[in-house]
Design brief:
6 helices, Porin, alpha+beta
């Protein structure tokens, strides 16, 4: 699972999430490598917004909670990010980010909490799910898939999707275990966790056995490891565990956990998504 990390200038993920400050705003760019059904993959949009916050000179601490609301599709080309520090104290900061494009309509907005973590008592009741290792799990074929899917490497341990045939006769399980890493190996950090948190295939695809119109409306990611913890893990992939509780009147929930191979819970995520059936 450990591999040489590519130079950030050449790495497709770092290129897609690059930001530059300009006239009090930050500028991001839509990458064709991360196209989804309509507009860019939401995970890379979230990762770009988080990168802008991490690069802001007033930012202090590591991300603790990050919520992104997707309001409308983002078009091609550059977009603006308006960052605002809402409240800060000695140990935490609260930020907001608005993403606009063209006529300044808000296409996505986020809130983030950063915290200075102290070395103190630790306890993790949850344990790493029983699963074959990354190296023992075959790579999922993504030929013909949406561009963003081809930028990740998926190794399904449980509930490998099979699309293209007839839908399931009865709803299947929404539970999935899958190793996920960037196609070009890249050390896991907070920015990549923000993207991978949205990289699970829609639960409804697994449940129905078919691809239907779908889109994330709101996603929150909680980070359980800081930059030092992630550097110590020195990993380029995580084990993702995803599930859903309900599909009702065009909306469904989705939960996810991101684990290191060493057994540390790195992040957990919750989202609400639209579907059309």
């Amino acid at each position: 699972m450990h591999a040489k990390v590519q130079d950030g200038a050449a790495d497709p993920f770092d290129f897609a999430t690059r930001v530059t400050p300009e006239n009090g705003r930050w500028i991001g760019h839509v990458s064709d490598d991360y196209r989804a059904f309509v507009g860019p993959f939401g995970g890379v949009t979230a990762a770009t917004m988080l990168r802008a916050l991490l690069d802001h000179p007033e930012r202090a601490g590591d991300p603790l909670a990050f919520t992104v609301n997707f309001c409308a599709p983002i078009g091609t080309g550059p977009f603006d990010l308006d960052l605002r520090l809402i409240k800060a104290n000695r140990s935490s900061q609260h930020w907001s980010v608005e993403l606009t494009q063209g006529n300044d309509d808000v296409l996505a907005f986020a809130t983030a909490v950063f915290a200075l973590r102290r070395s103190t008592w630790s306890h993790q009741p949850a344990g790493l799910p029983d699963t074959p290792s990354y190296e023992q799990t075959p790579v999922f074929g993504s030929a013909g898939a949406a561009p963003w899917i081809r930028q990740f490497e998926f190794r399904f341990v449980e509930s490998t999707p099979k699309f293209g045939g007839a839908p399931h006769d009865a709803p299947a399980s929404a539970h999935t275990k899958v190793w996920i890493g960037n196609r070009v190996p890249r050390k896991i950090d907070a920015v990549s966790l923000a993207a991978i948190a949205d990289a699970f295939f829609a639960r409804i695809f697994h449940v129905r056995g078919e691809i239907v119109p779908f889109g994330t409306m709101s996603m929150t990611t909680y980070f359980h490891a800081d930059a030092a913890d992630l550097a110590a893990e020195d990993s380029t992939a995580v084990l993702g565990v995803a599930d859903a509780k309900i599909f009702h009147k065009s909306y469904a929930d989705q939960t996810g956990e991101l684990w290191s191979a060493g057994g540390r819970l790195l992040a957990s995520t919750h989202q609400i998504a639209y579907f059309k059936v």
